[in-house]
């Protein structure tokens, strides 16, 4: 009996010891050598031919024309592809979806938080497949559902691009509601989706609550429905956020409303629809970045088809050139730090990640070079996320966030942009196109 017990004990000890040692043993860090026919060098803002990228674990070790390859390295050879840093969408709302005929706030009224989170999981996957390895999510996400989602990604419970999140948008007492909005729903929507403040003290307190809840940045409404935040309120927000090393970005879709936000010291402005050249020049002088959330000619055509409106392509092109196209060129002229952001919150039967890329297509439609477009969605975006050297570049010590596009992005930008072969995030292959 004692012998049997002793044997059991010994084998149990063995099992425990074995389990313990296997838990402690770290898997060897995987090496990849990625061979790129064409590489977008974000620091030089130029395409370079015939480059190799050596990756170990989550980071890039070396980049060069011909590298020594350690044993057991997996080679990924893309002689006819363009390799770029993982794309970044700096303005999105993965917890919101608006049907083509729905009001802006329908999601908050009709759908539960659970519905929105589960749906966001699908959007995040589509972002990865489109080549985005980071997104900045800027509100319309209930009460901190964005923080929950970011934490789920960090735990690797779900797959998707890494998230930088703002929590509820801080605005004046009328929030951000469209003019046709039924006011009896005001409390439900404005107070559950946004953070409404009156006075500098409340404004500062809202920022502190956001920080306590774990946001990465602060977003404000420079203008809401009818009310604007006062200069004092915005100054209090900026001061409190900056004291805790958080950036403040302002939703602003009218030129006149931008001036108080600029004076208050915000770091960036979202949308900037129809801003005057003088306003853009002032922003450039003050080092304020801009996230122009515009679409493309193709996107306009798709929307017209979906809503059964007749259109002529030439007319659409003119409409684009007179609005979004003109504003993009004004931003370039001002020399602003331009960061790509899609504001893709429509659900119109296109994967969210692909829809988000229409913004990049639109910058190109406006006349920016492929290099300038990629710059706005990589290195420029990384800077406003405080991730310079970590994200948005392919160089030694950066995180291995990489997207491979089939074809030549420099020569055939609009085609290659939508043909993603492989996506890597922190050294893991997260998406690979299956061969037909
Ligand atoms: Zn938005």
What would you say this structure looks like, in words?
The protein is of the alpha/beta class and 436 residues long. It folds into 2 domains: 31-85 and 397-432, Urease, subunit C, domain 1 (Roll), CATH 2.30.40.10; 87-384, Alpha-Beta Barrel (TIM Barrel), CATH 3.20.20. 40% of the residues lie in helices and 22% in strands. The strands form 4 sheets. A 7-stranded mixed β-sheet has the order 3-2-1-4-14-15-16, with helices on one face. Strand 10 (218-221), helix 7 and strand 11 (248-252) form a beta-alpha-beta unit. Helix 7 (231-243) crosses helix 8 and helix 12 crosses helix 13 (352-366). The longest helix has 23 residues, at 2-24. The radius of gyration is 24 Å and the shape is globular. Residues 91, 93, 138, 343 line the site of zinc ion.
Notable features of this structure?
436 residues; alpha/beta; Urease, subunit C, domain 1; TIM Barrel; 2 domains; 7-stranded mixed beta sheet; 16 helices; binds zinc ion
- Unreliable stretches, pLDDT < 50, 5 or more residues? 8-24
Small molecules bound: zinc ion
**What do we call the CATH topology of the largest domain?**
TIM Barrel
> What is the C-alpha radius of gyration, as a whole number of Å?
24 Å
The CATH architecture category of the largest domain equals: Alpha-Beta Barrel
Q: Averaging pLDDT over every residue, what do you get? A: 91
- Count all strands and give the number: 16
* Binned strand content: 15-25%
Strand order of the largest sheet: 3-2-1-4-14-15-16
Helix and strand content put the structural class at alpha/beta
CATH class of the largest domain: Alpha Beta
Query: Main beta sheet: strand number and arrangement?
Result: 7 strands, mixed
